[in-house]
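Q: Could you fold this chain for me?
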Amino acid sequence: MVVHPSGKWAYVANGGSNDVAVIDVQELRVVTFIPVGIRPWGLNITRDGKKLYVANGVSETVSVIDTASQKVVTTIPVGKGPWGIAVGR
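A: Sure. Below is the predicted structure, expressed as structure tokens.
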């Protein structure tokens, strides 16, 4: 799980359903599910909160989510078994 820098949203990888849950932190409810690759494991968000990166272990990709639209904007092939994401400054 990662929390948006604004504190408004939390993002949770759901490996069994191949999506990311978007949770409204104040209301403690799921707002939407964003479909990503197979078996999302690791998440990380940019410092400005504009992009969320999701490591999809079985599909060997990283999904890039635009947090304003809550949609995948690109999928990057990365090789065997990605499980984590590091975001630089």
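A (continued): The mean pLDDT is 96.
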